[in-house]
């Protein structure tokens, strides 16, 4: 058995040294991919669209959102191919867009930096509305997903219930409120130089959101009036504790106040900061939390936070196949794989974290001790580049999983607005069930959702261009958000050796 394990590790080592299987491709145009990844968010907009809207097949939608609470809850983003505004993944998307700008904004062309800030603000303007009734109420969702998912309907035609889901104190919503605090704190940093007044507003509301999250501890999906709307779609499966630490960590970074430093120091163990879970996404923040906090250890010599860096190191060691602690699965074509569908969210978010951590390590000329090998910043960057290049077309199918990038990309994505005729071309109302003929059609989608990254292939690298297979063909905002940062880095540093 030991010999077999050794042979397996030698095989993985040889793969890493020569690179995962190479696929025919030209050098990628990361600037074009970056531009399109940001443009995608305009296709996800809810509310009253501005005159400079660039995805012109979309129009106004959800203009009465919030009416049942006599509150304006218009705006924000639809999370994926449906017409629901889920606060939990939207806040995470916002945090990742803002982190992309904080970390890699200097690498963005000026017009794409501006477009990124516009994309962030479309979300933060909405998040401010969801927190407008603090300290006693947080709005966490608009739209009944069970009804919505039984319709194939353009957002402009929505006649399904726009149910508003609210959490009133002392009922808990630590996950959504904690992630909202992280989103607004990170965004306050992104806007600090260009709009200091707006930055101050975001930070003030971030502090209030965190206060709600910490005062009334628990998951929002534990509330009986929320459960049917949140679950099984964006139920809190992994607990709310990571969002408390994540929100506090972002407030620490945005304010530099010792209050939040003390919080993440004293609550780390009780809230599970040392849990090494090989995942980072809308539900589980541990890996991102550890990378974020480690910046203070690596670059600021804040050794009281050393346990966070140890966890971040451990996570990075799991990513490198030749490491003795490698736990991440890869497809035969070299894609990071985790069970559960929408697999490219993992490739995108983990690539982003790898690049952020590599930057911190490189600034202080450090590497990671993974037991049998030291991992350098360049190795983490190579790993991230491989994942991004896979998404853009360096894969067994030679398919770009970003719509509109290259000449070969998914044509039948699971997305209502993209698959139904535009209101510009078909102004007549298309009802809930009338849309089914478009859902079941084998024709390509009539509207190209430029920049959308689909869920992607699974462990076997297989992808059928099938609208009905939502786990593979549905794009989401939280795939694109970390990819924006990764593409910004690669655009400025395209020559990372494979």
From TrEMBL:
Spans traversing the lipid bilayer = none
Reactions accelerated catalytically: Endohydrolysis of (1->4)-beta-D-glucosidic linkages in cellulose, lichenin and cereal beta-D-glucans
- Per the UniProt entry, what are the Gene Ontology biological process annotations, in alphabetical order? cellulose catabolic process
User: Is Hydrolase given among the entry's keywords?
Assistant: yes
Q: Which SUPFAM superfamilies match?
A: Six-hairpin glycosidases
Signal sequence segment: 1-26
What UniProt keywords apply to this chain's record, in alphabetical order?
A: Carbohydrate metabolism, Cellulose degradation, Glycosidase, Hydrolase, Polysaccharide degradation, Signal
Location of the Glycoside hydrolase family domain: 30-487
Single GO term (MF): cellulase activity
Pfam families xref list: Glyco_hydro_9
EC numbers: 3.2.1.4
Catalytic center residues: 414, 465, 474
Q: Does the keyword Repeat apply?
A: no
Enzyme superclass (EC): hydrolase
Q: Which family does it belong to?
A: Belongs to the glycosyl hydrolase 9 (cellulase E) family.
Q: Which PANTHER family match?
A: ENDO-1,4-BETA-GLUCANASE
Protein name, please? Endoglucanase
């Amino acid at each position: 058995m030991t010999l077999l394990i050794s042979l397996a590790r030698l095989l993985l080592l040889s793969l890493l040294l020569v690179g995962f299987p190479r696929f025919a491709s030209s050098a990628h145009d990361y600037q074009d991919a970056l531009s399109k990844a940001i443009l995608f968010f305009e296709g996800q907009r809810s509310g009253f669209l501005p005159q400079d809207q660039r995805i012109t097949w979309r129009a106004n939608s959800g203009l009465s959102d919030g009416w049942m609470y006599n509150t304006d809850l218009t705006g924000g983003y639809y999370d994926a191919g449906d017409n629901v505004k889920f606060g939990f993944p939207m806040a995470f998307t916002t945090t990742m867009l803002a982190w992309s700008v904080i970390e890699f904004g200097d690498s963005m062309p000026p017009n794409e930096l501006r477009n990124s800030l516009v994309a962030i603000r479309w979300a933060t303007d909405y998040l401010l509305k969801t927190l407008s009734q603090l300290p006693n109420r947080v709005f966490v969702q608009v739209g009944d997903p069970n009804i919505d998912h039984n319709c194939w309907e353009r957002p402009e035609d929505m006649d399904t219930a726009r149910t508003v889901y609210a959490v009133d104190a002392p009922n808990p919503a630590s996950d959504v409120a904690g992630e909202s605090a992280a989103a607004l704190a990170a965004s306050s940093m992104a806007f600090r130089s260009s709009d200091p007044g707006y930055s101050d507003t975001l930070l003030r509301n971030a502090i209030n959101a965190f206060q709600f999250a910490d005062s009334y501890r628990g998951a929002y999906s534990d509330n009986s009036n929320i459960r049917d709307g949140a679950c099984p779609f964006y139920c809190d499966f992994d607990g709310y504790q990571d969002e408390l630490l994540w929100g506090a960590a972002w407030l620490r970074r945005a304010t530099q106040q010792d209050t939040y430093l003390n919080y993440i120091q004293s609550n780390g163990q009780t809230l599970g900061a040392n849990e090494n879970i090989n995942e980072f996404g809308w539900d589980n923040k541990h890996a991102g939390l550890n990378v974020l906090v480690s910046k203070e250890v690596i670059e600021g010599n804040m050794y009281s936070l050393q346990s966070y860096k140890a966890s971040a190191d451990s996570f990075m060691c799991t990513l490198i196949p030749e490491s003795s602690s490698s736990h991440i699965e890869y497809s035969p074509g070299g894609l990071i794989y985790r069970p559960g569908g929408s697999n490219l969210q993992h490739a995108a978010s983990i690539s982003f974290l790898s690049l952020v951590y590599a930057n911190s390590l490189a600034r202080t000329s450090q590497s990671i001790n993974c037991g049998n090998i030291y991992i350098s910043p360049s190795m983490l960057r190579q790993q991230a580049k491989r994942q991004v290049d896979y998404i853009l077309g360096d894969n067994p199918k030679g398919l770009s999983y970003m719509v509109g990038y290259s000449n070969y990309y998914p044509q039948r994505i699971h997305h209502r607005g993209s698959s139904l005729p535009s209101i510009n071309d078909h102004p007549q109302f298309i009802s809930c069930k009338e849309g089914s003929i478009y859902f079941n059609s084998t024709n390509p989608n009539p509207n190209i959702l430029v920049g959308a990254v689909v869920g992607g292939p699974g462990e076997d690298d297989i992808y059928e261009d099938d609208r009905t297979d939502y786990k593979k063909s549905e794009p989401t905002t939280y795939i694109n958000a970390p990819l924006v940062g990764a593409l910004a880095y690669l655009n400025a540093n395209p020559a990372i050796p494979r």
